[in-house]
Amino acid sequence: MGKIVPIQNGYCSNLDYRRICSIDTEVIDTPTTPLIHQMSRFWLINEGQGILKLQDREYELKPGTIVSILPWQISDVIQVDSPLQYYLLAYYFDNINAIIKSIYNTDSQPLSLIEEMTGCPVVQCGKEEYTEIRTVFEQLRAETGVESVKPAEESGRLHSLYVKNKLVELIVLYLRAGERSKTASPPVRTGIQKSDILHYMYNHLSEKLTLANLSKLFFMSESSISAYITQTTGLSFFDLLNEMRVGKTINFLLYTNLTMEELAEILGFVDSSHICKVFAARVGMKANDFRKTYQNVYEICDIRMTRDAYEIVTYIYRNYAEHLTPQSTAEQFHISLKELNTILLYQVEKNFSDFLNFVRVNRASELLKRTDKSITQIAIDVGYNSAKTLTRNFLRFRTMTPGAFRQSIEIQENTL
């Protein structure tokens, strides 16, 4: 991109930072310019025709279309055939995601909202689906008011509960419509795009993010990734990381009672002093003062992300090559198998087996890229008993065999 893309602010409402969502009605009658979204949002198209570019992929917009935009994705309406009139709902994705995992997902089934919503961001609803989804939008509008006109006052202590339940209902209806849409016309796999870099960074803030790691994942040189980030956002790689982390810090300060030490670990800061320094420089207010001023006690989600949860994730990362089992890991931390999977589903959106295989495949990818070891030896090095098991999991997570992956790396290096 030649121009810096504007970054949307990190709040649902400019009028009340405590709001978990806001709703408005907007009209687009001419093509827009690209926008980076810090806040999640849904569009429900009621009238008009046009083309949306989201994460460098183009989608048709028409009456009955619902669009899901997640944090740090880039949108641009590139064509307007007739004026687009739509409902715009901005909401805190992390908060709703946490609620669904900890309260609604009682059977602990694997559910990755990020993967589901990223995989089918634009859905053409059937008549009944559109009617159901529009009804939820209108119920939320009646409860919260219209952002650009007059937001409604919070109607007692049940306001928050009502809004959260409606947001969960909306996401369920959208996902069901997306499942039907995939069945009707399976999406074409287009692979990782350059525009996915920002979204990936946001979703992996708790990990050690470096240009070297991104270079391996996106098959781009470190200088190319750095240049893309600066040309797109106007920020350096590290400044962008801090911007993202501050945005998530605001969310946690508003909706949880996590300590600054816990937030520093969760969000990838060095320590509590570091997070407080960066937050004050970016927001102009001390983190604890911000929490006291804006936190709404009725909005706090009763979720405790304890150090034990992060120690479990770290344990699997560090011991992936060992003979790890759900039972042995649960015993290591003195918890039940159900608690183990519940923690992992919440933290990494995968159950024990899926997460362990995910880590092993990533480590195998690194060995395939930087060593000449045989695929059988690499399989053993990362904890598998055979190359066949590695290949099966590699196909699942990389959609190609280990041999094809290594060959693609060699082709790329030869063309540089």
TrEMBL record:
Annotated source species: Enterocloster lavalensis
UniProt-recorded Gene Ontology molecular function terms: DNA-binding transcription factor activity; sequence-specific DNA binding
Keyword Ribosomal protein recorded: no
Name of the molecule in the record: AraC-type DNA-binding protein
Record's keyword terms, sorted: DNA-binding, Transcription, Transcription regulation
Family annotation (Gene3D superfamilies): Homeodomain-like (1.10.10.60)
Transcription regulation as UniProt keyword: yes
Spans through the membrane: none
InterPro entries for this protein: AraC-bd (IPR003313), Homeodomain-like_sf (IPR009057), HTH-like (IPR037923), HTH_AraC (IPR018060)
PANTHER family, alphabetized: ARAC-FAMILY TRANSCRIPTIONAL REGULATOR, REGULATORY PROTEIN POCR
Record-annotated HTH araC/xylS-type domain positions: 195-293, 310-408
